[in-house]
Amino acid sequence: MSQGFDADRQQLLAKLKEKSVFFGDFLLSSGGRSPFYIDCRLTTLDPEGACLVGRVMNAMIQREIAATALPIAAVGGLTMGADPVALAIGMTSWMESSPKILNVFSVRKAPKAHGQTKLIEGGFTPGDTVVVLDDVVTRGDSTLKAIESVEQAGGKVGFVAVLVDRDEGGSDKIRSLGHKVLSVFKRVELTGDLGANP
């Protein structure tokens, strides 16, 4: 990766630590408790944060496409954590004239009850090979739901890309089903020793 990538990554890390990391006693969606909480949306929905997310994750994805020659057509994931990440990546791929311009899609939590009753919105066509995204992976359930929805709709998952991996088994669960997982950050980079496994 270029010096530009390293600088963007460091700037994005600083932004996440400033805006998205909270310390205390938090109840997680899994039912467990944690001494920290990572709310990536405070960064991914911030104008500067979104631009940094787009540049860093687009560079990571373009590098993987070049290394694997996968015919990736689009990026997206389960609404709403993946939505701003996907749009930032897609816009960056176009603005930077990347080798692969990436379409953007969003996976609904339930099919729309009217119109075309679609589960996947946006730039997705059956037969596409896609990158499934998430902002934070903990247990991996939302990522796995998105993967399942893409496959049921006739798509193929090239690999998974996440902004932050909490290192709590989610990525391993996704990998055990045969999907490569790339992450920009591990939780210890955001939380220090508090985020390390005991």
Tell me what the structure shows.
- The protein is built from 7 helices and 8 strands, in the order αββααβαβββαβαβα.
- It has 198 residues and is of the alpha/beta class.
- The longest helix is centred in the N-terminal third of the chain and has 22 residues, at 47-68.
- Strands 5-4-3-6-7-8 form a 6-stranded mixed sheet, with helices on both faces.
- The model has no long low-confidence stretch (mean pLDDT 93).
- Helix content is 41%, strand content 27%.
Report mean pLDDT, rounded to a whole number: 93
Write out the strand line-up for the largest beta sheet, numbering strands in chain order.
5-4-3-6-7-8
Which regions contain 5 or more consecutive residues with pLDDT less than 50? Answer: none
Give the topology string: H per helix, E per strand.
Answer: HEEHHEHEEEHEHEH
What is the annotated CATH architecture?
3-Layer(aba) Sandwich
Class of secondary structure makeup: alpha/beta
C-alpha termini separation:
32 Å
Q: How helix-rich are the residues, as a percent range? A: 40-55%
The biggest sheet amounts to: 6 strands, mixed
By DSSP, the count of extended strands is 8
Strand content: 25-35%
CATH class: Alpha Beta
What gyration radius follows from the Cα positions, in whole Å? 16 Å
What is the overall silhouette?
globular
Question: What's the CATH topology label?
Answer: Rossmann fold
Q: What is the count of DSSP helices, taking H or I runs of 4+ residues? A: 7
Number of domains: 1
Task: Offer a few descriptive terms.
198 residues, alpha/beta, Rossmann fold, 6-stranded mixed β-sheet, two-stranded antiparallel sheet, 7 helices, 27% strand, globular
